[in-house]
Each structure stands twice: as C-alpha cells, then as structure tokens.
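Sorry, any thoughts here?
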Amino acid sequence: MKGIIHLVFFAVLAYVAWDYYSFTTDAQSELGLKRASLALKRSDAATKEKKFAEAKDFYKNLEKKREELRGLSNELATMKLTLTETNDIPAFMKLVLTEAKRVGLTVTGLSPLASQAKTYYIEQPFDLTFQGVYVQLIAFLDRLAQAERIVRVDDFTVKPKNNTSKNSRFIDLEGTIKVRSFVYLGTTEDEVASKGGSDALKGAGAKKPMGKQ
C-alpha cells in the first residue's frame, strides 16, 4: 500500500512538473500568450518612439529649411531691386552719359543693339565709343560698377589716338565698349508669391514671362 502511495505521489509530481514546464515554455500557453502580447507591445512602443524621434528631427530640419528659404527669398527680393522691370533705353543712355560726363570721358557714340530675351530677363546691349585718357576710362567703369542697377561692361577695343602729341602728359585713348543692361521678367511664381499663396503653384504650369520689354 505504501508503495502505491509513493507511486501515485511521484506520478502527481511528474504531472505537475510537466504542466509547469509546459506553462512556462509553450508559446500557446496562457503565460506564453501573455509574454508574446507583452513583447509585441514593447516592440510597438519602441517603433512609435523611433518614429516620434524621426518626426521630431524632421520638423526640426523642416524649420531650418524654412529659415533658409526665407533667407533666399529675401536675397532674391533684394537682387530684383537691381533689375528694372521696364526696358527704358533713353533712361539708361542718360545714366551712361551722365557717369561719363562726371569723370570727363567724352562719349562720341552710344547706340542700342537688338535685345536678347532669356528665361527670366532681357539683355539690352549698347555700343559705346569714347575718347579720353586711361584714368578717366577707369573712373567711368568704376562708376558703372557701382550703379544701383546691374550693368555689365565687356568687349573692349582701346587704342591711342592718332593725333596724340608726343609732349602730352597723358596718352589720349579712343575705343569702343559694349555695355549691357538687364530687364527682369516676372513669372507666374512671382504673382503667386505676391499674393501670399503657394497652392496655386501646383496648377501654374510652365513659367510664362509677365514683364514688358
């Protein structure tokens, strides 16, 4: 009888041990399911925390990009101030002649050439012929470089005048210079920006000049 009791005790102990082992190791047991659920929640929390950190960095960088775009927009607006929006040839010729007169350079000819339309601006060239000394020429070019509007000077042809006296303190020069002025062409984006909107750019399509030559 005593042996039977021992046998039953060991059988019960073995069953309890097996049940405990299954409870703690079987993925389908109540403990296993709870562990899996907890691991899933931890993984989900870690994923959300990572996404939150990424979103935080994104908005931080986005604000930085916005500041950069504001700075570029202000810089562009400042640059536009140096570009007239009308091709006023007489006014520009008056500017050139006035600056030449201030330094004593004699302009013997100033003729507008055919304008060239670019994507965002019109280039208006002029042929200028002059007479004067080297110092006057340099001073004239310097004054044009400091003008409020953008002026480009290139294609020099300079030579001493044939009638220059050998006893003259300065060598008289004559030559030609190509002077270029620029006219800004407005775009669809300029009109939208002036109205403070950005959604309209989606349907703006191709950029179309809005300025006048």
User: Anything to note?
Assistant: The beta strands are 106-112, 116-117, 121-132, 151-160, 173-184. Residues 197-202, 204-213 have pLDDT under 50 and may be disordered.
